[in-house]
Amino acid sequence: MSDSFDNWTVQVRKGLLDMCILRALAGKERYGYELVKTLVDVPGLGLTEGTLYPLLSRLRLQGLVTTRLEESNEGPARKYYTLTAEGRKVLTLMEAYMDKLNEGTRALRRKGE
Amino acid sequence: MTPWTEAARAELERYFARVRPTLEASGADANEVIEDLRRHLDAEVATAQLPVVTEQDVQRLLARIGAPEPPAVEKPGLASAEASAQASPAAVKPGRFVNGLLLFAGVILPLITLALELATRMCAGAFFDPLPTIWNVVLVAFVPVANLLAWIAIRQNQAGRRSWLGWVNGAAIGVALYYAFLFLPLLLPGIIAVLFFGWGSLPWSPMLSLIAAVGLRRHLRRLGPNPEAALPGFWRGLGLGLLALGLIEAPGIATKIGLQKAASESPQEQRTGLRWLRLAGREETMLRACYGFTRGAQQMDIIGSLLGGANRLPAEKAREIYYRVTGRPFNSVPAPDVRTGRGGFADLNEWTWDDDHGGDKVGGRIKGLALHGSRLDTIADADAAWSYTEWTLEFKNDGVQDREARAQLLLPPGGVVSRLTLWVNGEEREAAFAGRSHVREAYQKVAIQQRRDPVLVTTAGPDRVLMQCFPVPRNGGTMKVRLGITAPLTLASASEGILRLPCLLERNFNIPEGVRHSVWAGGAGELKPRGNALTAEAALSGHSTLRGMLSNAELASPRGLLTVARNPDQPAVWTKDTRRGNGNFIRQTIQPVASEPPPCVVFVVDGSRDMAPHIPSLAEALRAVGEGTEVHVLVALDAVVPLWERRANQQGGGDVATALRQVEPQCGHDNVHALLRAWFLAAQKPGSVIVWIHTPQPMLLDSTEPLTQALERAGRDAPQIYELQVEPGPDRILEKLDGFARVHSVLRKGDPAQDLRELIQSWRPGHQHWTVARTPVDSETAAREGGAKEADLHLARLWALDEVRRLRAERRPDEAVRLAARYQLVTPVSGAVVLENQQQYVQTGLKPADPQAVPAIPEPSTGALVAIGVLLCWQWRRWQRHAASSD
After folding, report:
1. What gap in Å lies between CA B266 and CA B46, rounded to an integer?
2. Has residue B336 got a pLDDT over 90?
3. Cβ neighbours of residue B114 closer than 8 Å, sequence gap 6 or more
4. Residues paired with residue B682 on neighbouring β-strands, in sequence order
5. Is B86's pLDDT higher than 60?
6. Which of A50, A62, A66 sits opposite B81 (nearest CB)?
7. Parallel, antiparallel, or unpaired for β B455-459 and B600-606?
8. Does A45 lie at the interface with B, CB-CB under 8 angstroms?
9. Which residues of A fall within a CB distance of 8 Å from B33?
10. Are the C-beta atoms of B226 and B84 separated by less than 8 Å?
11. Which residue of B has its CA nearest to A22?
12. Can you tell me the distance from the alpha carbon of B219 to that of B93, in angstroms, rounded to the nearest whole number?
């Protein structure tokens, strides 16, 4: 039973990761380390650096984010990530879809009660 | 920077080596992620302020970071990047070989092909023009550019450009598809050329770039996270590419369709085609068609084949349509830079056809052939009312092929070519005069078959001759010919004659800037030029000399007119007619004749474009029509438009003028039908007159047989036709009216309206004009009667010309030919040809003129001209002295 739940959460988490990253970048551009620190605190998301960076790379390849490198006085150079117009559009779609899905599941629950 | 131990580094690299396959399978850029992780670790180390990074530190940090998660296996989509990346080979870039192939076929080869075609116009010259406009160049260049962008994006995994590159690629495929189709007929010759000559792959360029564009699209599609997802923009991009091509090609294709329609057998189709071409025809396309296409070019032009099928447009028909559409002869404008199947590539090796070689048409301009020098020497005997002009023309050919120089010359009114000379190896050779077909046959035999040195002159309408000589040697060679022209003076009054210098109406050679006609005119009595291009020089008492340089346009304008003062009390002159043996004389008398107003005047007004600037002033000139005269005005447009048909009112031709002013000439129109209709109108009243006011009509658009039939069968009181050509140039209708005594050319002395006004006024009651009668007499006493003065043999030549006309009108052609040959005259029934040597004359059954018996300046046997000789010697001495003093 526990295994089934774990598998289910992994699947749900994977589906939400892209949206969470895009949402984190929607307000402002962030560098990788900062992004990690922002997202690791999201409860239930279970994001690690090992998961985040491949995702960011894929999002860049998909044209949803762009990157730039900037030297930093506090340590190594920082790679900043910014949401593209396309990324913003996809985020809107994702969130709309999520809202609809949540509403549907809530309605289903109400009916079940 | 915190130092790392060797073990720490090794531990990190082991980690990366372990996770790399997972990263690659996830669809991420493994190198990028590894770099990000390094950067992240550095940041962690810096935050933790470690003094040194050990293997344990690395293990601890990596444990926290965790290994990259394996890709989720879910349905394709944006949120399932991992799954799609794993399932797809998209991240696998094309191999090095395929990469190179795509770059070569899609980018390098098309660019090389484009550059070569632009530089050499190879395809345009040999087959068809793939780049007729700058927009075609832009579109063709777009294909390798689009391919290059796609190639770079694939190479650099720029998935963000996937969408718009999909559109660009679609458009490139559209353009490449069209050009691949265009070059289909050349693919096989391309392979053969590669096999046999080692080169010739350029025709394959559009097809290869199309294949490359399709290949690049496949890789572009894999570039994204989901290789199964369609790459956007294929159909719409392709449509855009084809639409752009359509917009660019539409005028050319519409012109080709219009040309086909205009050349159709159906009159309705012809009218539609002409309307189409006048509205939207591309002049460049029409002009190229005028220079014809080789068979190879026709076979390779797939678009032309689709539009025209087997009925390819002959150059002659295209020239006719060009005139109908533009109102200009095709050879009055510079030839197109690229003449498909004629120029362009052919020009690379200077090899071009001359379709009119040896024929009876002047044809198009020939590159490299030019007038090198021109001199006109003319003498006038005012009292005897004749002039003799020698026109020496030198041609130069800078091309690499021997060329034939051809020109139509306008002679002085009533003039006749009485001498023809060709320089062969520096020596003068005189012409043989014989029947027209005989001399042409001889010319063609020598010029075309033996390719030796002949020159031929035949008539080409009233006061017009066609001169052709071959070969003007290649590589800068020259050829020099001289025409002697005997002509009567036009008598403006009893005390003034008008001499009009001959000029060029049509030519197939160029006249370089700076080449002008050097004119010398001399004679007894006062000579006056029109304008200031010719200036008087000192001469013996009672004689005058003019000299100057005239441009070709000036020579054809009223500046080519000279007025000669004559003794009004010298109405008769005579000469010994040595051509008919002793005891034969020709007596010429000049008599005033009172004009009789014609009962009916039919004005035929050409509605062609070049008439436009003349219409208002010509309309004003019509006011001179006398009251009560029946006036008809017919305008020759696509159909004959009867503009006016009634008697002139109290204001003379005032209302006619108002009506004519409404005419708006445009395009080019056939005048034959209008002339024929005018004949039917005028022939109903004896003594009527037709005044044909027209621009040059360089193409014969319809048969002139009904018109020539009317002239041949005309009775004594049949209409007289006065033609007034407003601009210099060839007129094919006039050429067909060659030799008809009822056709008169109005001497152009200035503004066409003024010349028309003078013509109309010359019919007014009480107006006098002068007739010149030349009659043979059989004794010197009879010839001298009334104090007649002895004149030159030219009188006899002019009499013979009149006789030839009479014999021809009486349908006695053989006698006419014999007479013309005896007096060495070029007439409608006879011509002159100079061959290279005696053997050729014998072979062709011709006998050249005796050099001692040809006219010259001064005429050797004419005592009256000895004075001119003395004058020339005196002038020459004077120049010598002047030159010596200058030194």
Report:
1. 92
2. no
3. B131, B137, B140, B141, B144
4. none
5. no
6. A62
7. unpaired
8. no
9. 53-54, 57
10. yes
11. B79
12. 8
The beta-carbon contacts of A96-103 under 8 Å, at least 24 apart in sequence, are A98/A16, A98/A19
- The pLDDT of residue B177 is 93
pLDDT in tens, B137-158: 999 999 999 999 999 988 877 7
For residue B44, list chain A residues with Cβ-Cβ distance below 8 A.
33
What is the enclosing helix (H) or strand (E) of B242? helix B234-262
Query: For the segment B717-746, what is each residue's pLDDT rounded down to a tens digit?
Result: 899 999 999 988 889 999 999 888 899 989
Which residues in chain B have their CB less than 8 angstroms from residue A39's CB?
none
Interface of B with A in 153-182 (CB under 8 A): 157, 159-163
Is B643 domain-assigned? yes
3-state secondary structure of B740: coil
Q: How distant is the alpha carbon of residue B419 from its chain centre?
A: 31
Interface confidence, given as ipTM, is 0.85
Would the CB atoms of A86 and B65 count as touching at under 8 Å? no
Instruction: Please give the Cα distance from B230 to B223 (Å, whole number).
Output: 11
pTM of the model: 0.65
pLDDT of residue B290: 83
For residue B868, report the phi and psi dihedrals to the nearest 5 degrees. -65, -35
Within a domain: B718: yes
B231 and B118 share one domain: yes
Q: E-strand spans in B425-540?
A: 427-430, 432-435, 455-459, 464-472, 477-488, 490-493, 496-500, 503-507, 517-524, 527-529, 534-537
Say if B490 falls within a structural domain.
yes
For residue B472, the domain's CATH number is: 2.60.40
The answer to whether B405 touches B509, Cβ cutoff 8 Å, is: yes
Contacts of B37 in chain A (CB under 8 A): 49-50, 53
- Identify whether residues B245 and B390 lie together within a single domain: no
